[in-house]
Design a protein that fits this description.
CATH class: Alpha Beta
Helix content: 25-40%
Distance between the termini: 63 Å
Shape: globular
Structural class: alpha/beta
Number of helices: 8
CATH superfamily: Vaccinia Virus protein VP39
Number of domains: 1
Order of helices and strands: HHHEHEHEEHEHHEEE
CATH architecture: 3-Layer(aba) Sandwich
Strand content: 25-35%
Largest sheet: 8 strands, mixed
Strand order of the largest sheet: 3-2-1-4-5-8-6-7
Length: 220
């Protein structure tokens, strides 16, 4: 048996190239660990999706669509929406899949269908407090009766350690308690998780850098 080099494997696959968009490329070049953390958040959200049955998923705030690729594993059909037209243009030009579509739209208050799952990471902290209810109404309004949502956001307790740029953009930070209470108005069951770096856990919430809320059992 002869050993196969990486060059042999690449030649057999054909030339494959992919260019990161401006946002994720900046992360990779200036703070590569943060890119790892971002993708780890998507990996966790993707693991909450069914592994044996493809479902329709709505992603609110998909940016350039890199994380969307993780959500699309196991055959899921993803609709990714973001208000950033430049990010969506990059996603549409770079990511070609029959199971993924991208839309540029201000999604708050709009209806796109009845989805089995809705994923929204690093979005709710950018929603002004007076628009918070409309955002959550949008999430619930696009869920099927048996659907669930995954909301991810930086923890308010970690704000003092965030960059100045992050502090300016994060206009509506949450603690674990507040995020849970907000979602319990819409779901019978809310499960909270914390994340430090790329590690997900159920430890002491005030020491978590990042928070996930899983909302199940939509209220009538």
């Amino acid at each position: 048996m002869t050993s196969q080099t990486w060059q042999d494997v690449r030649d057999s696959m054909g030339q494959v190239t992919f260019t990161l968009g401006p946002y994720f490329a900046d992360q990779l070049l200036s703070k590569p660990r943060h890119l790892l953390f971002s993708l780890s958040r998507y990996k966790f959200a993707a693991r909450l999706l069914p592994t044996d049955t493809p479902v329709e998923v709505l992603e609110l705030g998909c940016a350039e669509g890199i994380g969307t690729l993780l959500l699309a594993e196991n055959g899921h059909e993803i609709t990714g929406i973001d208000f950033d037209k430049n990010a969506i243009t990059y996603a549409q030009q770079s990511i070609h899949s029959e199971r993924i579509k991208f839309l540029a739209d201000d999604f708050v208050g709009k209806h796109y269908g009845n989805f089995k799952a809705i994923v929204s990471l690093d979005v709710i902290e950018h929603i002004a407090p007076d628009q918070e209810q409309r955002f959550l109404d949008t999430v619930v309004g696009n869920l099927a009766p048996d659907g669930f949502c995954v909301i991810g956001t930086p923890n308010e307790t970690a704000s003092p350690y965030a960059s100045t740029q992050s502090q300016i953009g994060h206009v509506n930070l949450y603690t674990a308690e507040r995020l849970s209470q907000s979602l319990r108005r819409y779901f019978h069951n809310v499960f909270m998780f914390g994340m430090n770096d790329e590690v997900v856990h159920t430890g002491f919430y005030p020491m978590c850098h990042y928070l996930f809320a899983l909302g199940c059992g939509k209220r009538a």
